[in-house]
Amino acid sequence: MVAPSPDHRPESQDGSQPRHGDDGPSEHRRPVTAPRPAPRDATPLLGPDDPPPVTRLNPEAAGPLLLVCDHASRAIPRALGDLGLPEEQLCRHIAYDIGAAELTRRLAARFGATALLSGYSRLVIDPNRALDDPTAIPVVSDDVVIPGNRALDAEAEALRVDAIFRPYHDAVAAAVAAIRGRGQVPVMVSVHSFTPAMRGVARPWHIGVLWDHDPRLPLPLMAALRADGRWCVGDNEPYSGRGTSGGTVETHATPAGYPNALLEVRQDLIATPEGADLWAQVLGDALEPILTLPSLATIHHYPRA
After folding, report:
1. N or C: which end of the chain has fewer CB within 10 A?
2. What percentage of the chain carries pLDDT values higher than 90?
3. What's the rounded Cα separation, in Å, for the pair 235 and 140?
4. ∠ CA 185-189-194 to the nearest 5 degrees?
5. Residue 215: which pLDDT band, with cuts at 50, 70 and 90?
6. What are phi and psi of 281, to 5 degrees?
7. CA–CA separation, 219 vs 34, rounded Å?
């Protein structure tokens, strides 16, 4: 994976440079071997009591809006136990984006849009990473060692890729193809949340809009949110979407010229049902007129610097 420029990425708590959509996993020294296909007789990672790797909402939706939530769940396959972590750690942002799933569900209901929610914790495998990214299966996240991720061989990694990572991305690709099959241009909105503080420094933003060089969705969205008058809106804050690669948006939207934006909502604002309701209304009201713009109905490739 080609790493984004350090000029566009804030430092994590251990001094490394986190990607957008992430408060947790940090770079580690365990080499990640490109996973090979799991042997045919390997025991499946997911059993009958495990949740599915992806949840699809409104799969028969007729509109072009596609919502994705890469860090929706903190679930861990039963076969992996608790990855050696206490429950208190699995409730933190290192395991999932707090409130993001609830917000995504409400936005899907508001617009009758297709939404795809990942089924497992990013500590198992992060769908918002390239497979050759060393944080795809993190050994350390926010200074917390993940014992269950240490010294994995290629076969163990491949089981996670085949059971969790690929089905999620296959579902995103299928949803994009369905929209294109209707003669529409997909509009992808990726929903994440971030911590109120990093390395002891408070983050002033209520919401950040992350984007690369396609301004069609992010610029009018930020303008609408600022016009509301209640919110501190970050432009590529608290992370930057400039020059990043390997994530869901960069895989399924940017290369194809589809309009897109990645939303980062401060997690304390959407950690309760009432907060998720409020932000679904705020974002829904801002997005509704924007989604009718003719510019979003075209394919346009913006050069990546």
Report:
1. C
2. 83
3. 28
4. 165
5. very high
6. -70, -45
7. 37
pLDDT band of residue 6 (cuts 50, 70, 90) is: very low
Neighbours of 152 (CB within 10 A): 18
Helices (H) and strands (E) in the chain, counts: 7, 11
Where exactly are the structural domains of the chain? 6-41+52-297
Among all chains, which residue has been given the structure tokens 């942002």? Answer: 93
Confirm or reject CATH 3.40.50.720 for domain 6-41+52-297, answering yes or no: no
Measured CA to CA, the distance from residue 82 to residue 280 in angstroms comes to 32
Helix, strand, coil percent values for the chain (each to nearest 5): 30, 15, 55
Tokens, residue 203: 């983050």
Q: Are residues 85 and 146 in contact, defined by beta-carbon separation less than 8 angstroms?
A: yes
CA distance 61 to 105: 14
DSSP for 66-111, written as a single string: EEEETT------GGGTTTT--HHHHTSTTTS-TTHHHHHHHHHHHH
pLDDT of residue 304: 81
Identify which of 186, 188, 236, 189 has the alpha carbon closest to the alpha carbon of residue 213.
Answer: 236
pLDDT of residue 66: 99
pLDDT over threshold 50, residue 286: yes
Q: Give the tens place of pLDDT for each residue, 77-132.
A: 999 999 999 999 999 999 999 999 999 999 999 999 999 999 999 999 999 999 99
